[in-house]
Design goal:
The protein is an alpha+beta fold. It contains 26 helices and 20 strands. It starts with a helix and ends with a helix.
């Protein structure tokens, strides 16, 4: 069915299809032992039962019944639905591929676990009252059920059934996602934020997402804060976004929409931010983190979301696309994207970019790698990379990179533990430091680095880092600079100077003993660079070193054999470092803040990917010229080799730095950091929080 044909379906036709599917599902839920073996009967009966319960919930929402429920009743219903995938019950859930294989067998266990997981996404469409998506998911379940009931099933037939379902409805899932990204008329979340009584925490259950103690405690805490403080938090967030356009020299008044991404529970702050964006002439576009397999990107989540019910569940299904990923499906997804972008070209042209309000505080997740979970083949890894590259090219064709910006800020959630409110206040202080003060200090550092050919970093103690980073050349030192003076604009908090290093001449070992990246924990991470490219890598997360290599390849290299060093930076936010040490946040601190607490490098694209030709100027008026490297320079001749569509920062904490020195062309060393302290004249003020912390016995 084409996208246009789907749109032509009348509401009555969809209701009829839904009623037919629901009736058959009710029959299966009442028992199907005569048609199937005991194990398969258990799977299909339980799955049909939860689909029927979901349909009942659809009716209740349509009739406005949830408004009559108490907070306790809503919480109980939410817990009942999600308990199947929560850690205490996950061991015996069909969502767990290991359990599914144990009960249903190797041939069908994994793929039926995928189906069960995909069907669980129906809850979001129940709450959004999207009857078409509910109906087609129910019809997929029935199609699979009848294959087993008729004893006419093989893995190939089952896989083909799922494949063609996704292929046929790709316009709905992939094309629909494009619309969600740019169309402000899709206002499901906006209405929750703006129309709800936020003092009545029942509003949290209107999303249909898992609501944990984090969301409830966050909302209660924010309701206890004076409105002036809420407005201050929102103001820093929105002003950073505005400044991003100012720094790029882009006219924000020509834009119409901003994509707001936020964690459920922060609605009071987001409501204030929406009012402030309105003053800038921007309407919010707010969409849910992707649920359909065609739109997911491993276990990453982009869009509004809540605390994960179980990170292992998401990790187990991160490569479910191994079931269907082939060249034909890649082409189909790209075609659906382009069709949708053409349809919503006006909305895409008016889109200004994302404003991301992120959170941190959960215990670092160290996953179990299960042999029963799907993994991509080497060919599929290559296709995954190809699709990522082509999809980003497509996005940048309709939402032009040079004409958009972004901002991101982060605050803790109650999962961070005792002292949450005190930590929240401390992070707010970190997020609102004085721009002018840091601009002057960082400029002194940049002036030294502009005269250098390279930077040398040596670890101390147990840290084995031994890394040389090559820097760009300046044609005119009076008007050009190699480093951007990064303040509190797109990337909050302030506190770094950064550059795109030259790859040729960048060599050595990066070693980080403990780090949390993209939601995953790494122990004793070692990455070796040769000519600026990742040459070798390892970690100590697993007993088997090869499993550690696969872990890095999948989650840091994103299924590639190598990536370039896309960024080198020196973090200067020593207050953030002290707060981290004082409250023992090291493993929980997000990279957004952690990158400001020491020198760091990034794997992947430069900070200027897709906008290298946009001129960027520091506050002193000098143009930042280090906007590309030997990979991104290929963007006009071979885009597939130019961009990697990822950027992961990895920080070495101050205490692990023995020496960080600028190297001149004649190899003279000019120290910036020695033994974890800034030593460059004019930057010594950065040591004050460190010294005060030592005097207070924080360390």
């Amino acid at each position: 069915m084409t996208y246009m044909e789907q749109n032509k379906l009348s509401r009555e036709e969809v209701r009829e299809r839904f009623a037919l599917a629901r009736g058959r599902i009710q029959e299966i839920a009442s028992g199907c032992k005569d048609e199937l073996s005991d194990s398969l009967a258990d799977y299909f009966t339980k799955t049909a039962a939860f689909l029927e319960e979901s349909a009942c919930r659809y009716d209740m929402i349509k009739d406005g019944k949830p408004a009559e429920f108490s907070l306790a009743e809503l919480r109980a219903e939410n817990h009942t639905y999600f308990q199947d995938v929560m850690p205490a019950h996950y061991k015996y859930s069909y969502a767990n591929p290991a359990y599914a294989v144990e009960i249903l067998g190797h041939e069908f266990g994994r793929i039926l676990s995928f189906l069960y997981t995909e069907l669980r996404s129906v809850r979001a469409y129940i709450f959004e009252q999207n009857l078409f998506r509910i109906t087609i998911l129910y019809e997929l379940f029935l199609e699979v059920y009848h294959m087993f009931a008729c004893d006419d099933v093989t893995y190939r037939k089952l896989r083909d059934s799922i494949y063609w379902f996704l292929f046929d409805y790709a316009p709905e899932w992939v094309g629909g996602r494009v619309r969600e990204m740019v169309d402000p008329d899709l206002d499901f979340a906006l209405r929750i934020i703006m129309d709800s009584d936020l003092d009545d925490l029942r509003y949290l259950y209107l999303y249909g997402d898992f609501i944990s103690d984090n969301e409830l405690a966050t909302a209660r805490f924010l309701n206890s804060i004076p409105q002036a403080r809420i407005d201050e938090i929102a103001g820093v967030f929105v002003e950073g976004y505005r400044q991003g356009f100012e720094l790029k020299g882009v006219d924000l008044s020509k834009k119409k929409t901003v994509n707001i991404r936020y964690p459920i529970g922060f609605e009071r702050v987001i409501r204030s931010a929406i009012h402030k964006f309105d003053e800038l002439g921007l309407s919010p576009v707010i969409y849910r983190a992707a649920l359909n397999t065609l739109n997911k990107n491993q276990n990453l989540r982009i869009g509004f979301c809540s605390t994960r019910a179980n990170p292992q569940y998401d990790y187990d299904h991160r490569f479910d696309d191994a079931i269907y990923l082939d060249k034909r499906m890649v082409d189909r997804k790209l075609n659906c994207m382009e069709t949708a972008y053409r349809e919503y070209a006006r909305e895409a042209a008016g889109h200004a970019g994302p404003a991301v309000f992120s959170v941190f505080g959960e215990e670092p997740f160290q996953p179990v790698s299960k042999p029963e979970a799907y993994r991509l083949s080497q060919r599929q890894m290559n296709l995954h990379v190809e699709y990522s590259s082509l999809a980003n090219e497509l996005v940048n064709r309709y939402i032009i990179q040079e004409e958009r910006s972004f901002t991101i800020i982060s605050y803790p959630i109650p999962a961070i533990g005792d002292g949450f409110e005190e930590i929240f206040k401390a992070i707010h202080k970190v997020n609102t430091l004085d721009n002018d003060r840091f601009r002057k200090i960082q400029q002194i550092m940049i002036d030294l680095l502009d005269g250098a050919e390279a930077v040398k970093i040596m670890g101390q103690g147990d840290n084995m880092t031994n890394l040389t980073i090559a820097l760009s050349y300046l044609d005119d030192a009076e008007t050009q600079t190699k480093f951007e003076n990064c303040l509190a604009d797109v990337n909050i908090p302030l506190g770094e100077v950064f550059t795109s290093p030259k790859l040729y001449g960048t060599e050595g070992l990066l070693h980080v003993q403990s780090v949390y990246l993209n939601g995953l924990y790494y122990e004793n991470l070692r990455i070796t660079f040769e000519r600026g490219m990742v040459k070798d890598y390892s970690c100590s997360n697993f007993e088997d070193p090869e499993e550690g290599r696969r872990y890095i390849e999948e989650n840091l290299l994103f299924n590639r054999e190598t990536l370039p060093m896309g960024e080198f930076a020196i973090g200067t936010n020593t207050l953030a470092y002290v707060v981290s040490r004082k409250y023992d946040l090291g493993r929980k601190l997000p990279i957004l803040i952690a990158e400001k607490t020491g020198p760091h490098i990034a794997l992947g694209d430069t900070c200027y990917a897709y906008s290298e030709d946009v001129r960027v100027f520091n506050p002193d008026g000098k143009e930042m010229i280090a906007r590309e490297n030997e990979c991104s320079v290929l963007r006009k001749t071979d885009p597939k080799q130019a961009y990697f569509n990822c950027h992961t920062d990895i920080t070495i904490p101050y205490e692990d730095i023995g020496r960080l020195v600028a190297l001149t062309a004649d190899r003279v060393e000019k120290p910036i950091i020695m033994n974890g302290r800034f030593v460059l004249e004019g930057t010594l003020e950065l040591n004050l929080p460190l010294d005060e912390a030592e005097d207070s016995e924080f360390f």
